[in-house]
Design a protein that fits this description.
Strand order of the largest sheet: 1-5-6-7-8-10-13-14
Oligomer: single chain
Strand content: 5-15%
Order of helices and strands: HHEHHHEEHEHHEHEHEHHEEHEEEHEHEH
Number of helices: 16
Length: 509
């Protein structure tokens, strides 16, 4: 009880963080002032969200359109289901370009601005919702003149080939990531990396391909010592219903162990990124395939938790010294209106319910298994603001909220006080270099405040690597996350560094 009272007082006194943040360089130096307790700063990527990998990749646009079509056919209102904000990005990024023979206009859905071209977007969604003859979502009419005389144009999908791997290494090194004290002398992870299952499994098979695994392990070693996330919101294409069956638990745990066995130098591993968030997104059809589940949510979530813990156990058998992590995006729930507004009273009740279903549920699920993992990977993103019952806010909003960020860290620490915390993911979706700088300043300053309050915070890894079109499937067009490079260029990797990257380089210089 005393601990909870003290914790409340911490929240009370830290709820007015000065928004005039010190420079990230200043905060980073403070975080590393004790040479025996260093702090790591880096970034990372997931192959599934980096580029169209291969025909075996879950992010294969044709596969996405096929899966969406199958599920859309079950909906009573196809248009309403397809127009969900999360699904729109998958649809627009996957649909090919068309040219109308009658009006000669070319329509590239990926370039549509959903804020400025709402009418055009509505026509496209209505068109694909009404087109039930195709085996995948497709436009069969021109959204401008309604002519059915259209030609589907080839769309170039950039593949993440081996030619780009040296560019990844060059870009990491250009920011001086490996030379910081935490990585060089204490073997902290110098990067976060999620290999895609198609880079490890045999084609159309659940078996690990020894040659592919060896190549993946070689790349991981070339990076240095990345923290490995083995399931990053994307199921293998050969088993899109992963975690729906109890036998999937042993398969996944064995898969993780085989990868770690091939990477004996890796010191940190997290089997599943945000298991609770992944389960909820799939249950609401908001995620890369499967886009839905076919069993009760509680059973699905239980299987995911068991798969994560069993993977940790199997990994420890391979390497007893490796640090195993559990990942969660601790969301702060905020009411939109004040306590003096009747709506504010309702919103506070809704916030408590949402916090229980998401954050406290995570604690309940993993508290019983705390002896089977060593640390926490915390995803740090803007809060959810409730306007009545309706949640507002998303991970790519670009909101800078230091109070919420600090609360996320402190509440996670309160839930698991004996576990080290790594901020495995955080970003700010803004082009403005000033805002990017402010976000980095805020993040490092909040880490400094958390360290001062006794939180064993070990490092922060910004998301993601590059701002290519395929760097995020669910990001709005014409926006970007806090990636230090705009393009993953094999020809000129360093020349693609943007303002965010240059600022990170200054901090790490």
């Amino acid at each position: 009880m005393l601990y909870r009272i003290l914790f409340f007082l911490v929240f009370f006194f830290c709820s007015t963080i000065d928004t005039n943040f010190p420079s990230a360089k200043e905060s980073f130096l403070y975080l590393n002032k004790n040479p025996l307790n260093p702090f790591a700063l880096s970034f990372g990527m997931s192959e599934a969200q980096a580029s169209f990998q291969s025909l075996q990749n879950t992010a294969n646009p044709l596969f996405i359109l096929t899966q969406l079509q199958k599920i859309a056919e079950k909906q009573s209102d196809r248009y309403l289901w397809l127009s969900s904000l999360d699904r729109i990005w998958y649809i627009l990024r996957s649909l090919p370009k068309i040219q109308c023979k009658q009006c000669t206009k070319i329509i590239d859905p990926e370039l549509i601005d959903i804020e400025k071209e709402k009418l055009l977007l509505e026509k496209i969604l209505n068109n694909i919702a009404a087109n039930t003859k195709s085996s995948m979502l497709a436009m069969n009419k021109c959204p401008f003149c309604n002519s059915s005389e259209i030609v589907v144009l080839p769309k170039l999908y950039r593949k993440l080939t081996e030619a780009y791997y040296p560019a990844v290494i060059a870009q990491i090194n250009s920011l001086n990531i490996p030379n910081q004290l935490a990585c060089k002398d204490f073997n902290f992870p110098n990067y976060r990396y999620s290999p895609e299952s198609c880079s490890i499994l045999k084609n159309d098979s659940l078996e690990v391909d020894p040659l592919k695994l060896a190549q993946t392990a070689q790349f991981i070693k070339a990076i240095g010592n990345p923290i490995i996330f083995l399931h990053n919101y994307a199921n293998p294409l050969v088993i899109p219903n992963l975690f729906e069956k109890s036998e999937h638990i042993d398969w996944f745990a064995d898969y993780c162990a085989q990868v770690i066995k091939a990477c004996p130098h890796v010191t940190h591993v997290c089997p599943i990124v945000q298991p609770l968030g992944f389960a909820y997104r799939v249950a609401h059809s908001h995620n890369l395939p499967p886009f839905e589940i076919n069993i009760p949510m509680n059973n699905y979530l239980s299987n995911i938790v068991q798969a994560h813990i069993q993977a940790c156990k199997n990994i420890k058998k391979i390497n007893p010294k490796i640090v195993t992590l559990v990942s969660h995006q601790w969301k702060i729930m905020k009411p939109k209106h004040s306590v003096y507004d009747p709506r504010g009273i309702l919103e506070r009740v809704v916030c408590k319910i949402a916090n229980y279903l998401y954050n406290e549920k995570f604690v309940e699920l993993f508290k019983a298994y705390k002896d089977h993992f060593d640390a926490i990977s915390l995803s740090l993103y803007p809060p959810v603001v409730f306007d009545g019952w309706v949640p507002d806010g998303n991970n790519v909003s670009g909101v800078i909220d230091a109070d919420a960020a600090l609360q996320s860290i402190l509440q996670m620490h309160q839930a698991f006080p004996d576990k080290d915390i790594y901020i495995g993911e955080t970003s700010c979706n803004a082009f403005d270099p000033v805002k990017k700088k402010e976000f980095i300043d805020m993040t490092l300053y909040v880490c400094k405040l958390a360290r001062e309050k006794g939180v064993p915070l070990k490092g922060v890894y910004f998301w993601s690597h590059s701002n290519d079109f395929y760097s995020e499937w669910n990001k709005p067009p014409h926006s970007t996350n806090l990636a230090p490079f705009d393009i993953l260029s094999a020809l000129n990797p360093i020349g693609c560094m943007n303002a965010g990257g240059k600022y990170l380089r200054v901090i790490l210089s």
